[in-house]
Every structure is written in structure tokens, then in C-alpha cells.
Amino acid sequence: MKPLYTLFSVFFFIIFAPSAKAQHSSVISATLDTEKKTMDVKQQLVYVNNSDDTIQSILLNNWIDAYSSKETPLAKRFSDEFIKSFHLAKKSERGGTDDLMIHFGENNRIADWFTTSDQPDVIEVNLPEKLLPGAQVTLSMTYSVKIPSDKFTGYGYGAGQKMYLRNCFLSPARFDNHHFVKYSNNNSDDIANAPTDYDVTISSASGVKLFSDLDEQKQGNTAHFSGKKRNDFVIYASDGNDIRTYKNDVTEVITDLRDNNIDEIHKALLIDKIVHYVDQNIGRYPYEKIMVTQADYERNPFYGLNQLPAFISPFPNDFLYEIKFLKTYLNNFLKNSLRVDPRADNWIYDGFQVYFMMKYIDENYPGIKMMGHVSKLGLFKSYNLTQLGFNGQYSYFYMLMARKNLDQPIGAPKNTLIKFNEQIAGKYRAGLSFRYLADYIGKENVEQSISEFYRGNQTAYTSGRESLEHILKSATSKNIDWFFKTIIDSRDIIDYKFGDATKTKDSVTFTIKNKTGTTVPIPIYGIKNKEIVFKHWLENISADSTFTMPRESATKLVLNYNNEVPEYNLRNNWRSLKSFKVSNRPVKFVFMKDLEDPYYNQILYVPTFTYNLYDGLSPGLRFHNKTILDKPFIFDVNPMYSPNNQSLVGNFSFAVNQNNRESNLYGMRYQINGSYFHYAPESAYLKVTPIVFFKFRDEDLRSNHKQTLVLRNVIVQRDNLPDTAADELQNYSVFNAKFIDGNTEATKHFGYTTDMQFSKSFGKASVDVQFRKLFNDNRQISLRLYAGTFLYNHTNNDYFSFGLDRPSDYLFDYDFYGRSEKSGLFSQQLIIAEGGFKSKLAAPFANQWMATANVGFNVWNWVEVYGDAGFVKNRLQQNRFLYDSGIRLNLVTDYFELYFPVYSSNGWEIGQPNYNEKIRFVVTLDPKLLVNLFTRKWF
């Protein structure tokens, strides 16, 4: 029997040995200089060909080199998201790899390696000979690492001797599906490293303590760490005063997470509670240690909590710490131990993380509200924002993007997501999706599937999507193809509504309409006195469908009552059974702002103040229905009182929005605006404008390229004009067609606007081209070209003429604070339009054509020199060449600027009388425009 047993053992080993393949190993010896912010490295990498392919080259991830220049994918990502700090940083604040030498094995043969201009943070090493399956090769490498400032990504050096080092050593890229996974660093924590055994020795200066999530072998001025089958690891250097260590039977937690003055015992209990919760719900952490740092949290904070001012403090300190630690621990736990592609399958990480965060809140804080104890204050009890459950906020963040028509499939690769979707909306939608599935097939089935998937993906990479799909489908007899095809892989919106409904004493018959054609299961609830009396799942509603079911004393039918389904519109989801007619939603007045409440017609009111020289500081009361989520129909009415004229002024707007989900023409808006203000002392204007917007975008939503076609008819009536004024100056109507095309980033901008205007008295056409470029030496140039011509002109005045330094603004488009002023401070307000000159020159109008160029060049930070030049042509006159120049203080571009004329067609302006009256300024007070400074980096 023994020979037979031996033969069986050999056979078993041959069959199953491939699952225990040899591992890459990397031995690193480094000297860390916390003063110079550098690290000298000697590294020996043994690369094992674990694939079935013959390899001719090896890819190494060198992500620290993404900080080396202003042309890397990381730098371009910063620019794309309107982050200018990296481009303007000092060279000493950036990082990179220097003096890299690579040799092969014992023969010390110099390796042939290269990078490409589009991926400088990925190194390809050509092998001296082909590497067969199962064979290995040894690379000996020496290099110097320049550690970047942590102000860019949270990784790098901070104040004092603090450093948080991640992805700072060379590591082998993952080989998958017959090729290396070649990802560049774009600040999304999705490096594609192959699992490697690490042995790391780091020497540092006296007083510097080193910490790592690798196993610690030795500490002191020389620290020794090691770890098996690690995708990644971190090194944290500090004086040690900010680091705390907590150990239990599951793992050891090393953290510097800010604790809001929680005592150590309470903090230890919270950490132990969370570690065991994750262990029981997902699985055992495979390593001895895990780091949970403040830098990790700040990279992916709990949006909502982190946006509230500290003085509000709607939650106790221990809860704030608990939720911050839970979120960061779950993120690091999953990223460190779950082997799925962090870029292609990032939705799995996000889905698991948010799902178990929501479950944790349900189990430990049932009934807690989104705004904490603020919900108990009588003043705020009527707000949906304060009464919404804590977990209810997740669907609102997703719906914020869906209503803007900017949502993306959560199964899309992480690098293709716009920032808000990557960090907030998509992440929350992924967790909601697993919660939806759990409600449909059973919570135990989903959670057991997640645990099974986690166990199966700890030791080797699998195709995460296919593996998870197989496990989930095996856990239920229900058809869940819709979950992957619709919820994960598409951006199809879901919207069901009630049709007719009839009732008897014992039953109810109703029709459900599918407004979008997206077919997924949806629950229907029977409600009586705010209590659920029944719940059923409705399936396969691809068209209008009629159902009959027991009434069970219900007085109201509600679809998706607990918002399990990520539905586009909840306002059409209920039907009263108290009568055969639909009951109208009651009107609810809300002060300031609120979340959308599907059970009320909300009218929001807010005090307003506006200012112009002729009306004065005008208080008003604005009524509108703009909640945080966009709506198909929007109204906005803002009556104000003009103290200077003792009369009512104000504006109004009514708009209908239409989104196209599958078209480059992604949005249309049909709108009518009106305004009534004073444009001169005791002289008012009424402006009414029907308008249509057509909004275009690229298929790549990350692109900042946007186009808009605007068609409008501007109707203006002015009063109190002199008797000698022509009628065309008092009442006129102008049809305006405008096309706007622009692509804007932090380091560059190019855009143009074409404008056509037609009225009874004139017709004109113009083009405005703008270019701005921030060069690598931090010099910035801006160029604007403007050309306009009259197609016909039957007027005898300059009211409709092109303006050289100040447009007459006969369409009342610009926010002039003193639009009729010819002298004084308000006449010095500058709005860059038409000619764009800053100096006030004689005869500044053109009634035939105008062509100008405006150039600016910075000489130091926000100090620029500017120059304007152009030709002005009036009827029966020769064209004139005009110019000006001066100094511009570009404090906040387009929002707060000062212009100091120096030399122009008027001569040397500084030496002329009343120079202070020649200074021009740009000031924007409109809150809507100021908010754009902060939102553009997200959308």
C-alpha cells in the first residue's frame, strides 16, 4: 500500500502544485534622511514567472516618479481637477527616483530599461534572455528616492520629521491575462502590484521612529520589517508621540487618527469593537498589523461629517471618531487583503465598504439622523435634511449626480470616473446596490457570498466581477442578471410610477408604469397610519402592468417606501386608497434650503440682498423650489424693495430641464427670465427673455470640454428717457444666438464664443477667442482676441455700438453696479467684454466694426503686465489703431482683479491728473459664481 500511497501523493502534488506557485521576493535596504527628505535604496528583486507565458521583459511600478515633473499623468490629473498647487510647487517639494541602476544577477550585467513619456512612472526592463514559465531572474537595483511633500496627496513628508511613505520603492507590476497591468499613478490608490514577499531594512536618524503594516522584526535607529504576499505596504516615520498601538486577538492596529479628545480606554474599546465587527462580518485579516492613519482618512473622508463646521458639532466626539475609524479601517482592510483589480473592479471595494458601514449604523445606532442631535431641535424639526436617517444620505449623494446627468456606471474603471463619482456618488451607489440586492434575495445570502468571495480572493487574483457574480448567483434561485447588467454596468435610470388604482374592502388593483424602460425588481408597500402592513416585490415590469393583491387594511400604496431601489424620482411613488383620486401633495414652506421631500411640494424662501447704485441695498424675499437635487421644473421669484426709489424691483425665472441620457446633447433647458431694476436715477428697465439652452459634452465625462448653444429673444422696455430719444432706445427686441465652446484646466484654457444678434434696427456678428497657458516655469500668458462687425445698422447713436473699454450692455447681461455712470468709482468697474480695453480712450465706440487683442503675462505670482491693441472703425471715418498697457493684480481670476494703466494712446497715464480715477477693478459678488470656484474641481 505504501508505493500506492506515494504514487497518489505525487499525483496530488502535480495536479495541485500550481496553486502554490513560488512568490516574487524583494529585499530592500534603505537609509532615510528626514532632513533632506531623501532615501538611498539598495534592492534585490527575485522575479518569478508565475504565468504560462514566456516573458521577454518585466514591468516595475515606480509610482514615486509621478511626482517628478509637471508632465506626468499625476500632474495632468491635478490640472484636470483645477488643482494648481502641484504645478506651482517648488522643486524641493516634488519627488521622484534618481540615479537608478539595474543589474542582472550575480554577473552584474547592466540591464536595458526604459520608460515612455506618457507613463514615466512605469519602468520596462528588457531581459537578457526569455524567461520561461516557472523560471526566475534576479534584479539588483540602486536608486535614490526624493520624497515629495504630503500636501499634494497626503503621502510624503509633513511637518517636522513626519513622513508617510507609500509606493516609494520599485515593485513588480501584476501579470494578468498574458500581459502586464500597466497603470500610472493618478492619485487614486489603485497600483497594480504583484503579490511579493518583502524584507525591508531602514536606517534613520536618532529620534525618528519607524512604523509599518509589515511585520516588525527589529526597532531602533535601524528598523527591520517583513511581510509575505503583500500587494503594498506603508512606512510611517515620526517622533512616535502621535502614534498609538492597539492589539487584540484579531490584529494589531497602529493609528494616528485624530481622536477629538477621547480618552484612551474609550478609544481602545471603539477600535476593538470595529475590528471584531469587520472580522465577524467579512473575515479574518490575514496580516499581523494594519495601519489606520489620519492621511488615509483625509484622502477619503466621510463626506457630510467633514463638511460641517466644528462649532455645530451635531454628533458626540466618540461617534465622530468611531465613524471615521470604521470608514478608514474598512478601506485599508479591504485594499490590503482582497485581491481584485483596484482600478477595473474598484466598485467591489466601495460596495463592501459602504454596505458594512450602513449595516454597522443600523445595528449600533438605529434611529440616528443625518444631522445628529440637530434633528431634535424644534427649529429644525420640519426639515427633511434633519429628519432623514443617517443611512438615507447615501442615496441623495448618488441622486445629486443622476439629476445632473453626470452619473456614471459604478462598474466603470476607477480612472474614468469624475472626482465626485469616484469619491462620493459612485462609492455610495455601490454600497446601496449591495443593500438593494440583499433586500431582494436575503441579507444572509449576500453577506455569506461576500465572506466566501473574500476568502477566495485573499491569496490570488481572480476576475473579481465574474467570481463575485458566480458566488451570488449560486446563493439564490432568483434571477439577478439585472443586478450586474443594469445596476453595475450601466447608468440606466429607474423610475416607476402609479397608474390607475381601485380598491375593495379586501383587495386592491393598481397599475405600475415603467417610465424609463429599465426593468428591475421594485417593492410595493401597503401603509396604514405610517405602519407597514404588507410588502411584496414586483418583478419584470418592462411595460405598464396591472396587479391585484390583498389590501390588508392599507390606506396608502407606496413604491420603494424605504428607498431600497436607487430610483430617479420618488415623487410619483404613492397612491392614496382613501379615495379613487390621487391626493395632491400639500405645500410645505421651508426656510433657506432643504433636501427634496417626495411627499410635499416644497417652496423655499430666503431673505436676499442685492445692490446697485440706483436702487441701493435692496432687501428681498426669494421664493423657489430648488432643493439640493435638480428638478425637471424650477421656479425662482425674488421680489425686492428699492429704498432709493421706494418701489418694488426684482427678478423671476421659470425653467424646464430635459436630460438626454444617451447623447452628446446631454441637456436642454427651456426658460423664461424677467428682471426689473433701475439703470439710472429714477429710470428703470424691464427685461423679459425666453431662452433655450442646448448643452453638449464629450463621451468621456472626465473631459472638461463643454459646449453650449443658446437661443434667446431679449425684450427690453426702458422708462424716463428724454423726449428726443428714439423709440428704438426705449423699447426693443433682440434675437440672440450664441455658441460657447471651452476646455478649461488649472494650467490651460482655450475657448471661443460666437455671437449673432438681430433686431429691427441692427444686425451684428462677433467672435471672442480666449487662450490661457501656465508654463512649466510658472509664467502664465493669457490671450484674448475679439472681432465684431455690424451686418446692418440703421441706428444714429452708439447705444448698440461695440464698446472698446466698457460695453453699453443694452441686453442687460452684465452685473454693473453703476451702469450709467460716466465718472466716479462705479464707472471704473471693468467687465472684460467686446474690446476689453482697460484705459478709457476718446470715442470708445465702433458702429461698423472692431478687432482687438488683449494680452497678459505674469511677472511674479499674481502680478501681471497687460497690453491691449486693436482697430476701431466707424462709418464715414478711417479706422483707428488704439492701444493701452499696464499692471494687473490677478488676485482671483475673473472674480477679484485690479488694473493700473501705465501707457496708452492717451500717453503716459501715470503722470496724468486724477490717476486714481483711471484704475479699473473686477469684483464679483454673485454667490452662484463664487460657488463655482469650489464645485468645478468635483464636476
Envelope shape? globular
Number of helices: 15
How much strand?
35-45%
N-end to C-end Cα span: 71 Å
What's the helical proportion of residues?
10-25%
Question: What integer is the average pLDDT?
Answer: 91
Described by strand count, sense and barrel closure, the largest sheet is: 18 strands, mixed
Radius of gyration: 33 Å
How many β-strand runs?
48
Protein model, in words:
A hairpin with a 4-residue loop joins strand 32 and strand 33 (647-659). The protein is built from 15 helices and 48 strands. It has an 18-stranded mixed beta sheet that branches. An eight-stranded mixed beta sheet has the order 5-4-8-2-1-14-17-16, with no helix packed on it. A four-stranded antiparallel beta sheet has the order 6-7-3-11, with no helix packed on it. The model is unreliable at 1-20 (pLDDT under 50). Helix 6 runs antiparallel to helix 7, helix 7 crosses helix 10 and helix 11 (443-456) crosses helix 12. 19% of the residues lie in helices and 39% in strands. 34% of the residues are buried. It is of the alpha+beta class.
Structure summary:
It is built from 15 helices and 48 strands.
Structural descriptors:
alpha+beta; eight-stranded mixed β-sheet
Helix-strand blueprint:
Elements: H1 2-16, E1 24-33, E2 38-48, E3 55-61, H2 73-80, H3 85-88, E4 96-104, E5 109-110, E6 112-116, E7 119-131, E8 136-146, E9 156-157, E10 163-166, E11 171-172, E12 175-176, E13 179-180, E14 196-203, E15 209-212, E16 215-218, E17 222-230, E18 234-238, E19 244-247, E20 252-255, H4 264-281, E21 289-292, H5 294-299, H6 317-337, H7 346-364, H8 384-387, H9 393-403, H10 419-441, H11 443-456, H12 464-474, H13 481-488, E22 496-503, E23 507-514, E24 522-528, E25 531-538, E26 545-550, E27 556-559, E28 574-576, E29 587-591, E30 601-612, E31 616-624, E32 633-642, E33 647-659, E34 665-680, E35 683-697, E36 705-718, H14 727-730, E37 731-744, E38 748-758, E39 762-774, E40 780-793, E41 802-803, E42 845-846, E43 849-860, E44 863-873, E45 880-892, E46 896-904, E47 907-908, E48 920-923, H15 927-935
Parallel strand pairs: 1-14, 20-21, 29-30
Antiparallel strand pairs: 1-2, 2-8, 3-7, 3-11, 4-5, 4-8, 6-7, 9-10, 10-18, 12-13, 14-17, 15-18, 16-17, 19-20, 22-23, 23-26, 24-25, 24-27, 27-28, 30-31, 31-32, 32-33, 33-34, 34-35, 35-36, 36-37, 37-38, 38-39, 39-40, 40-43, 41-42, 43-44, 44-45, 45-46, 46-47, 46-48
